[in-house]
Amino acid sequence: MIFSDHLLTFITFLPTAGALLLLLVGGRDEAANNLARYIALGVTLLTAALSLWLWYLFDPSNTGFQFVENYAWIGESIGYRMGVDGISVLFIPLTAVLMPAVILSSFGSITKRVKEYLIVFLVLETFMIGAFATLDLAMFYVFFEGTLIPMFLIIGIWGGARRIQATYKFFFYSFTGTVLMLIAIMAMYWQAGTLDIVKLLTFKFPPEVQTWLWIGFFASFAVKMPMWPFHRWLPEAHVEAPTGGSVILAAILLKLGGYGFIRFSISMFPDASHQFANFVFVLSIAAIIITSLVALVQTDIKKLIAYSSVAHMGFVTMGIFTGNIYGIHGAIFQMISHGIVSAALFFCVGVVYDRMHTREISAYGGLVTPMPRYAVVFMVFTMANVGLPGTSGFVGEFLTMLAAFQANTWVAFFAAFGVILSAAYALWLYRRVIFGAFTKESLKGILDLDRREAIVLVPLVLLTILFGFYPAPILDATAASVNLVAENFANAIGAAPAAVAAATGH
Amino acid sequence: MLSDVTSFASLAPAYPELLLAVGAIVVLLVSLFWKGISSTAVSIVAIALLLVVLAVLLLQPATGVLFNGVFIVDGFARYMKALVLGGAAATLLISLSNAKEHGIDKFEYAVLVLLATLGMMIMVSANDLMSLYIGLELQSLALYVVAAMKREDKKATEAGIKYFVLGALSSGMLLYGASLVYGFTGTTQIDQIVAAITLDSRSIGLIFGMVFLLAGIAFKISAVPFHMWTPDVYEGAPTPVTAFFAAAPKVAAMALFIRVTTVSFGPITHDWQQIVIFLSIASMVLAAFAAIGQNNLKRLLAYSSIGHVGFALVGLSAGTEVGVEGVAIYMAIYIAMTVGIFACVLALRTENGPVETISELAGLAQKRPFVAAIIAILMFSLIGLPPLAGFFAKWQVFLAAVEQNLFLLAVIGVLASAVSAFYYLRIVKVMYFDEPVAKFAAVPGELSVVMAGVGFLIVTYYVTVGRPLTDFAHSAAGSLF
Predict the structure, then answer these.
(1) Interval B431-468: pLDDT, tens
(2) Which residues of chain B carry a pLDDT beneath 50?
(3) Is residue A500 part of a domain?
(4) Sign of the CA dihedral with B208 first, then B214, B216, and B219 last
(5) What string of DSSP letters covers B22-67?
(6) Rounded CA gap, A432 and A429, in Å?
(7) Which of A397, B65, B187, B413 qualifies as a FRET site for B260, CA 20 to 30 Å off?
(8) How many CB atoms lie within 10 A of CB A467?
(9) Is residue B401 in a domain?
(10) Residue of A nearest to B402 (CA)
(11) Which residues belong to any copy of the NADH:quinone oxidoreductase/Mrp antiporter transmembrane domain (chain B) (predicted)?
């Protein structure tokens, strides 16, 4: 057995092994809590290291799946299949690298039921990585839906005052959407005779069947993404969740929806995707414009960032359903970038929340005076959220807009308003929190970033700027697979593959 | 008619039943004449007997038809009997430490459970409408007594009477249906009914007979609209008895349902399929909504079991081998979850006595983290969330329904499971999100073992039991088609 042949299995289940280890930690005193914290941190760091090794070993010129493991397992339908291609490979390091930051950020802020907190996060990490790494459709469902259990507990146990309503809403929106996908998965099994994603990708589903399958998958991913008007659960879940929960929700769980659209909707149901493309464009533009306007009037920092997430995901869905190479490339880039930036923004909110225990924008003001380092860090992420050139936020938005122009000029025209509005709400938020007169009595004595918070945030700052100026590591890893997806999509809907040929020059 | 039993060896397929029958009588006689024997000792002997019978069943792969065709042992019967025996043994085990408090600390309890189990095994192996009825009545009569065993308790007596009256009614319907089927096919033997149906085309009288027959069995599995007795009996009967009712008899009746529909009415699948689809949808939907308002744990579990029967019937609705395999897997996982949840319920007691309502569970996660974790796992599994066993149970039955293009049934089913998630999650919410109010007593050792075992199997289903169980269920279903 060669270790690297089973690398995906190790990366996926290492966090669960860590969770089992945590079960053995006895006692409820501070020493036991600290031991649990350092075990969790160690396990997530090791997972992160392995995931970066995976990225290093990944051969970007290969359009097929790599690190493949394929075994028949339960009955005739469910197998154990793992593998990554350019579409999925980057989400694994994204998840694994954010997890140590999430664990680290909990050190000061989570003081009750510490061990349980760490266990559910480690289990959640297994589900998230598994969803990106699996090549069996039933197992994808298992991992995808499995995330509901830990997330339900995270919001419900460690959340804010209205956490119960928030966690129920999160659960029922997601569960209802996802079970419809389950029916579609079963129908696919009987159509194609297998749940092996590799084989399903080459199977041609009849167009009239595709429509129904597409709807089943859409019900799940549109809620997960979330697309307007299925986003109602998101702001509440974000507001009530503890910092770590918000970070994971925004950075990783939403990406499961986007990944699903690319892997399944576009790749397996191209005819239906083409047919529904305008419908998705309308919803995407609605998301971009409406939720940006809604974000403008928010008084709660987390809610504002949550709505901005919905708007940014609008760019992703718009990019994906253009079906061309810029769109899909941009969508993936936007997802990775948003994973970093939104995570960092929620960490930033967590920093001031831990000090002041309020998320009301009006409770803050003039923080630049007592917290200069925080002001700088927050500014970088605000700019990335706006999509300023030189930050990672720009590349994804630019590519998706480019794709939208190619597909439909009006779509691009309306989407451009999102860029303007995002500048409005993000900069206004920054002005109200960081600038202005430092007069509030309650803020006196607030401390700047400590070392632990800096360790969490500084790497994210560096990554944001690095990918803004040098997006090649991400674009190169995904290029070959994206080309293939776009090419197959173009062939399936009978369009001239001219755009594909022109765009291979990355 | 000459008997086909010529030697003891030719009885091999029936060894488990014979052993259990003789064992039950011996236990009864010994307990009767041995003054002062404790009920716990009798229960332990009964558990040991059930396990020995289970071992004989599993190690003795003999199959065949016996007693002039009224008794059949095939892969399906062996699978279902294994579940019945395991369920009965497990429910006796979890009632050991609390029999006194529930008023069932009499040796008759264990004996009646043994006799009921024997009845269930005969039901599972019935190849004739007569042996079917005998098995069913042996089981039911034992259960009527067990339900009312706590004589001085009004609720238990009420439960016993309700169960008896409605059970007798259903037996009557079943008998009436059986007589109609006999009248229109000329035989009572299940595998010969098939031939009679194939020879001359179906008659309306036969359909009538079948409907009555199915209605009688639907009572026993408590499918809507024949479910009315379930919540009352579950609530009124002593909790260990409720656990027993919820586990093994459901499996036996489901096995009977499957054998009657797929084997004897195989040629008229379309006729009974509609009935099963209706039962399935009605059970899933009614249980999902009716359970929301319940605060009594046992009533909630009653509706939950009605709902799960509905989900299991989704598989049978397909009327195919895949579907029967699905039901077989479903019942195995259902029985494990039922035993687990009742072990938890029996383990929980506050200073006010045993826990009966959901609100009493407040803050359990902080007081008894182990029990709370097991209940939470079971609740998530009952919802059908992956990667827990409950998901794989639903997977196979819905897969069968989708194969037969029963999309409406499948969509209603999964949406009903979303509704049912609401009340299962409420228990998790009360345990984990609310602050503790009561103190909980320590958990008896054997209950912890049962809980840990069930929890382990549910969580690791995909890795551990999933594959062998599916293979076993696959060969079981294969023996019917």
Answers:
(1) 998 888 888 888 888 899 999 999 999 999 988 898 99
(2) none
(3) no
(4) negative
(5) HHHHHHHHHHHHSTT--HHHHHHHHHHHHHHHHHHHHH----EEEG
(6) 5
(7) B413
(8) 25
(9) yes
(10) A187
(11) 126-419
Q: Are A485 and A328 in contact (CB under 8 A)?
A: yes
Is A450's pLDDT higher than 90? no
Q: Which residue has the tokens 């159509």?
A: A191
CA angle B178, B183, B185 (to 5 degrees): 90
Query: Does any domain span residue A264?
Result: yes
Q: For chain B, how many structural domains are there in total? A: 1
pLDDT band at A498 (very low <50, low <70, confident <90, very high): very low
Domain count, chain A: 1
**Residue B323 to residue B57: CA distance in whole angstroms:** 25
Q: Describe the crossing of helices B15-33 and B39-59 by its angle, rounded to 10 degrees.
A: 170
Q: Which positions 106-145 of B are in contact with A (Cβ < 8 Å)?
A: none
Query: A131 falls in which pLDDT band (50, 70, 90)?
Result: very high
Domain containing residue B64 = 11-478
Q: Is residue A85 part of a domain?
A: yes
Distance CA A405, CA A387 (A): 18
User: What tokens does A412 get?
Assistant: 């691009």
Is residue B418 within 8 angstroms of chain A, CB to CB? Answer: yes
Q: What is the pTM for the complete model shown?
A: 0.93
Q: Using the Cα atoms of residue A402, residue A403, residue A405 and residue A411 in order, give the sign of their dihedral.
A: negative
Q: Do the Cβ atoms of A149 and B380 come within 8 Å?
A: yes
Question: CB contacts < 8 Å between A and B, how many?
Answer: 85
Residue found by looking up tokens 């209802």 in the block: A176
Q: Does the structure show a pLDDT above 80 at A159?
A: yes
Q: Is the pLDDT of residue A8 over 60?
A: yes
Does B334 map to a domain? Answer: yes
In 3D space, the residue among B181, B170, B174 whose CA is nearest the CA of residue B204 turns out to be B181
Inter-CA distances, A52 with A85, B136, B306, Å:
15, 63, 49
Q: Are residues A182 and A138 in contact, defined by beta-carbon separation less than 8 angstroms?
A: no
**Residues of A in Cβ contact (< 8 Å) with B474:** 75
Give the DSSP per-residue string, B176-188: HHHHHHHHHHS--
A502 pLDDT above the threshold of 70: no
Q: Could you report the per-residue pLDDT of A402-419, keeping only the tens digit for each? A: 899 888 889 899 988 888
User: What are the pLDDT digits (tens) for A59-100?
Assistant: 888 888 888 888 888 878 888 999 999 888 999 999 999 999
Which of A122, A129, A162 lies closest to A144 in space, CA to CA?
A129
The answer to whether position B4 is within a domain reads no
Is A179–B474 a contact, with Cβ atoms under 8 angstroms apart? Answer: no
Q: What is the pLDDT of residues B70-101, one digit of tens each?
A: 899 999 999 999 999 999 999 999 998 888 88
Looking at chain A, the number of H-run helices and the number of E-run strands are: 22, 2
